[in-house]
Fold this sequence. Notes:
Elements: H1 2-18, H2 26-47, H3 55-64, H4 69-87, H5 100-119
Amino acid sequence: xxxxxxxxxxxxxxxxxxxxxxxKYPDWIVTVAFYTALQAVDALLAxxxxxxxxxxxxNTTLKQTNRYEHIWKxxxxxxxxxxxVRYLAAPAQWVKYQDIDKNVLRKYLYPIEKSVKTLTKxxxxxxxxxxxxxxx
Length: 136
């Protein structure tokens, strides 16, 4: 269970960074949102005594485990979007800054966090607020 705390700490760290990334970097906001979700998921996996050493192992575990079904349906699109904005040219064509709150945070990150918190009932998650992105 000690590993859960390290993932939760990294989740808090990554989440706090989201409010400081300038609007001209929507690709990095999406990337940090994805890694925020990843740390929450890894905390859940640690809670369940599951080890995911890579994206492939984590993705397979989420996809093939009924307990994680709700997380998978939000996690995979965020994973896919983060890869697109990182590796394909013109990241702004994949996600517009003004759409990040609705189409990334509310659609993917917040539901993942809510599901993880629900499934780790005994774990004390730090309180948090909705993320306030820098005004463009």
